[in-house]
Structure formats: structure tokens, C-alpha cells
Amino acid sequence: MIINPRFSKRFALMLMIMHCGALLLLLPLTLPLSMALALAVKLALGLLVLASAWYTTHRYLLLINHPLDACVLHCEPKWHWIELKSGEIGKIASGSYSHPQLVVLRLTYLDHVRLKSKDNTNPVVKPLERDNKSSRFKQKIATQCAPFQKLRKVRFYGCFVKVLLMTFLGIERKSQALIIFPDALDVETFRKLRVAIRYANDPPQDADNFIKSIQR
Predict the structure, then answer these.
(1) Is 201 exposed, middle or buried (0-12, 13-18, 19+ CB in 10 A)?
(2) Domain residue ranges of the chain, discontinuous segments joined by +
(3) What is the model's pTM?
(4) Rounded alpha-carbon distances, angstroms, from residue 89 to 46, 68, 92, 114, 125
(5) pLDDT tens, 64-81?
């Protein structure tokens, strides 16, 4: 199932009301400062609101360079996974939210292996258990720095340092969320996505209910 949200008028209207309301509230705001300083503070706050509006519109409404845009949800009897355009694999995180009027899809990235199917046409992804930080770090180095091994050493070591910093500073995986309103997907896809979020973190014995609900 491909999750490719289109432009949502509801989301756009909500963002417009929120940010325009925040700007209007700055007009009657009084501060115990001099007129010039109060005006400067209001201007700075207004710029922050505009920056928030620009970022939210580009990131979550227009989905420009959003990693979860056009992702594919795969369902198997014992697990599910989400495949991104970049080729990375993840699963629905526990922080995801499902409501008839709003879905917030959050992703947890997984280490994985690809298993070829019998007809060798549709590969199956099997999640791997993440062990200690050392093995995960070695895997990141192997996957992310391999393309640079035949290039100059400066590029390879630069990639090595980047992975090192991202791993131990905890900024490797930013929290990615996809905000979806009902008018952004067709009715059937929106329903299946809500069902997937509902059953994604249930015990394995409920996997049959998950698959039946998705395929129904």
C-alpha cells in the first residue's frame, strides 16, 4: 500500500488560522519595555511565527524533501514494515496517532535483511533485532561509508566522523512524522492506514486480525 498524501485543504486552512491568529495576537500585546524595544521584540516574535509557518508548510503540507512521502506499507503475517524512497526500512512507531479526522504516522527505523521470495520478484524484508551500540555503529559505517572507500581518504574519513557524531550525539534519526488529514488520501487508503496504526504494536497473536483488516 503506497502512502502518498496529496495537498490537504483542511491542513492548509488550519495552519493559516493558527499562524495568522498568532500574528494578530502580537498587535495588542503590551510589554513593560520602551516603545522601541517592545517593537523590536514584537518584530522578532513575528519573524519566528513566519519562520514556523514557512517550515511547517514546506515540511508537512507540501512534503518537500519529506522522507516519509510516497512510502510503501508492507504487511506480512508476523510483521509489517514501511519502505521509504531512500530504501531505508522502518516500522510504525508507538507514538503514531489514529483518529477519523487525523492520522500522525511516526516511524522507527530498523536494521533488516531482504529475503527473496520463491518467484524472486517480490523481496521480503525481515527485521533484525538490534543488539548493542557497537554493532549498530559498525553497520552504519559499512552501509554509509562503503561508496567512499574507493575515493580519496579525506571523503571516507569525513563520512566516518559524520556517522560517529550522529551516533553518539543521538542525532542520527530525527523524529519523522507524517501528518495526514482525510482529504489527503482516498477513503480506502486512509482506512487501511488507520487499521495498520491500530494493530501495529499489538502482540503477535493479533497479527491475523491485522492482516485480515488490511486486506478486507
Answers:
(1) middle
(2) 2-61
(3) 0.64
(4) 39, 11, 10, 10, 8
(5) 888 888 888 887 766 677
